[in-house]
């Protein structure tokens, strides 16, 4: 029973779920037989050609799963399971770079056992129309990091994880917001109203946003008063920076312009 020539040595090679551990013997047909270990942990002896032709792919567990899968095929959960496997493990998938490409994987329990995934789904609040959502976007698909959510919830979570590159550096928008000391929700609001992403991240909050002025029991931000009364906002900003009260900064007529703020206030009450 000669050891096979190195050309035919399968030691260390993987065939689907089977990893070849060592050479065993030649069978009655004088074919080499190999000791394999299956991904599920079971050991199995398999003939050379069965491995290389792909006739035998596992210890038998794959076959068993296929039968279960058959009963579940085309169910929404089966499609979801397949979709996750594709984006995590198939480099040809368009989504791969955002999943498998950055280390997002499925736990072995779910990966190799659709039934386990389905069981989890049923006991964790799965309903038709909900999507699977990873709680921590840096972590993979596993029972402790997944939940069911509406699409809106998921978009919010996913958006925080949207990657953006500035000056050759890539971070999530949430991380960029942290770098620039600005609240991420403010950044997303700015993007929602049409700012471009970079501007939304790097533009500091106008400190005057927080200043308000009250006239006749009506309190508005300084910016809104300036607009309403047709007063130059930059002038008012400078005055507040010099220590003027917001009210005084708004109503005091400008030295250089003809606009009379006091008259403007009166006309403003008329509308
Ligand atoms: Zn197995």
Overview of this protein structure:
The chain is 41% helix and 17% strand. With 271 residues, it is of the alpha+beta class. The protein folds into 4 domains: 53 residues; 97 residues, no CATH class; 39 residues, no CATH class; 63 residues, no CATH class. The strands form 4 sheets. It has a 4-stranded antiparallel beta sheet with strand order 1-2-3-4. It has a two-stranded antiparallel ribbon with strand order 5-6. Strands 7-8 form a two-stranded antiparallel ribbon. The chain is elongated.
Terminal Cα separation, in Å?
A: 103 Å
Net shape: elongated
Share of residues in helices: 40-55%
Count of the domains: 4
Distinct compounds present: zinc ion
Quick one: how many beta strands? 10
Helical stretch tally: 13
Largest sheet: 4 strands, antiparallel
Q: Concise description?
A:
The protein is 41% helix and 17% strand.
Task: Give descriptors for this structure.
two-stranded antiparallel sheet, alpha+beta, binds zinc ion, disordered C terminus, 271 residues, 4-stranded antiparallel sheet, 13 helices, elongated, 41% helix
Please write out the topology.
Layout: E1 14-15, E2 18-26, E3 32-38, E4 43-47, H1 48-52, H2 61-72, H3 76-89, H4 108-111, H5 114-123, E5 131-134, E6 146-149, H6 151-160, E7 163-166, E8 169-172, H7 173-179, H8 184-192, H9 197-202, E9 212-215, E10 218-221, H10 222-229, H11 233-241, H12 246-251, H13 261-270
Antiparallel strand pairs: 1-2, 2-3, 3-4, 5-6, 7-8, 9-10
The protein binds zinc ion (ZN).
